[in-house]
Amino acid sequence: MNKKVPMRQCVGCREMKSKKELLRIIKTAENEIFLDATGKKNGRGAYICPNEECLALALGNKGLERSLKTAIPREVIESLTKEMGIIAKG
Q1: pTM of the model
Q2: In sequence order, what are the residues at sequence separation of 6 or more whose Cβ sits closer than 8 angstroms to the Cβ of residue 25?
Q3: Burial 6-34 (b: 16+ CB within 10 A, else e)
Q4: C-alpha to C-alpha distance for 80 and 55, rounded to whole angstroms
Q5: Are 55 and 88 in contact (CB under 8 A)?
Q6: How far apart are alpha carbons 46 and 2 in whole angstroms?
Q7: Of the candidates 52, 71, 39, 44, which has an alpha carbon nearest to the alpha carbon of residue 12?
Q8: Which of 20, 29, 56, 84 is 20 to 30 A removed from 12 (C-alpha atoms)?
Q9: What band does 47 get if pLDDT is binned at 50, 70 and 90?
Q10: Would the CA dihedral through 79, 39, 61, 12 be positive or negative?
Q11: What percent of the chain has pLDDT over 90?
Q12: 3-state DSSP call for residue 33?
C-alpha cells in the first residue's frame, strides 16, 4: 500500500503541496511567532512556501494572521522575512 502524503495549503499562494515542501510558522501558547524548522513543535501552525513572494502574499491577504488567529507584530514579520531569505537563497 502507498502511504498517504500529508498535504497542506500555503497561506500565501493557497496551493496544496506536500507538507515536506512547505515551512511551518507557529504561534505558541505564549503568543510567540516563529519558524518551526522541525515541524513538530506545539502550537498553532500555518504552512507557507519557502519563498519571499508567498510570505508577502500571506501578509498582504492576511492569510497568516487568519491562520494563527492573531495580529503579527512588525519585528516578527522582519525576522520571518530574514529567515525566509536565507532559506530561499540557501
Answers
A1: 0.87
A2: 33, 34, 35, 36, 45, 46, 47, 48, 64, 68, 80
A3: eebbbbbeeeebeeeebbbbbbeeeeebb
A4: 8
A5: no
A6: 26
A7: 52
A8: 29
A9: very high
A10: positive
A11: 69
A12: strand
